[in-house]
Write a structure and sequence with these properties.
The chain is α/β, with parallel strands linked by helices and 274 residues long. The chain is built from ten helices and ten strands. The longest helix has 20 residues. The protein is globular, with a radius of gyration of 18 Å.
């Protein structure tokens, strides 16, 4: 394991708004001589590059120490990115993730044959969509992923939220201004169709205590070929040090396995193993 890492900031202009990204690289002595596998971390709905209880920062750090180049980002209107979250839709979030993916692929240190995506919640659905659109994506780790956006997200909102939506065109959900455009766009993404099209190795992880995204979502990915792992008692946010430790161990083990599995002649075939 590397003893240090480098963290850089970067911005990507999308329309009139800057998308804020963070790049994690292994220590300079390591990345100076190696073409690194790359991982994109895709946050969930109303989530940031930091993640719940610092989860995305910690995962990016652990992955960088394991030898990966990592990019994490804030959706427009959240975190350090510009924009208004009222404008967030299924499509705009996917555009943000695609822009962050382009950044990862453009890094000199990254081997474009070895790129994976770790997506949390809605980010898991986006990971499937990106893999279907970009053949150089070789593997996925889906963390409490959404498989049915049109069924999952309406359950988040109460009658008072829907009344606000009708009256103002947006609703105050846990302090986040969620616009009507988000609700109207829920049928615009079918992550299972995308996942089937991508046809790449994937790990899906969910907690048995998840009350926000039902386990049927994870089962749906498993039915299409994903390997499924459960973390007993973990909630949707993997709230707990021991839950996060289990989560990080599963993810890193998965990506290392996919990255380093080799042919009989000990050469990588197409990057991550298929």
């Amino acid at each position: 394991m590397a003893n240090s890492m480098e963290v850089r900031t970067s911005e990507r202009l999308i329309g009139n708004s800057a998308l804020s990204c963070r790049i994690h690289l292994p220590d300079s002595g390591r990345n100076a001589f190696h073409s690194l596998p790359g991982i994109l971390l895709v946050p969930g709905f109303a989530d940031t590059a930091t993640g719940p209880h610092n989860m995305h920062v910690q995962l990016a750090t652990r992955l960088a120490h394991a030898g990966f180049a990592v990019v994490r980002f804030d959706y427009r209107g959240l975190g350090e990115s510009e924009g208004d979250f009222r404008d967030f839709t299924i499509g705009s979030g996917l555009d943000d993730a695609a822009s962050a993916l382009d950044l990862l692929r453009s890094l000199d240190q990254v081997d474009r044959r070895r790129i994976g995506i770790a997506g949390f919640s809605l980010g898991g659905a986006y990971a499937a969509a990106l893999a279907a659109a970009h053949p150089d994506i070789s593997t996925l780790a889906l963390l409490a992923p959404v498989a049915f956006p049109h069924l999952v997200f309406p359950t988040f909102f109460q009658a008072e939220h829907r009344a606000q939506l009708v009256r103002y065109g947006w609703m105050d959900w846990l302090g986040w201004p969620v616009g009507a455009g988000f609700m109207d766009s829920l049928n615009n993404l079918d992550p299972l169709v995308a996942f089937r099209s991508a046809a790449i190795p994937a790990l899906v992880i969910h907690g048995t205590g998840d009350q926000e995204v039902a386990p049927e979502n994870a089962y749906a990915y498993e039915a299409l070929g994903a390997q499924r792992k459960t973390i007993d008692e973990a909630d949707h946010l993997f709230s707990g040090v021991r839950f996060k430790e289990q989560l990080f161990s599963l993810i890193i083990e998965w990506f290392l396995k996919q990255c380093h599995r080799r042919c009989n002649d000990d050469t990588i075939t197409g990057g991550f193993s298929k």
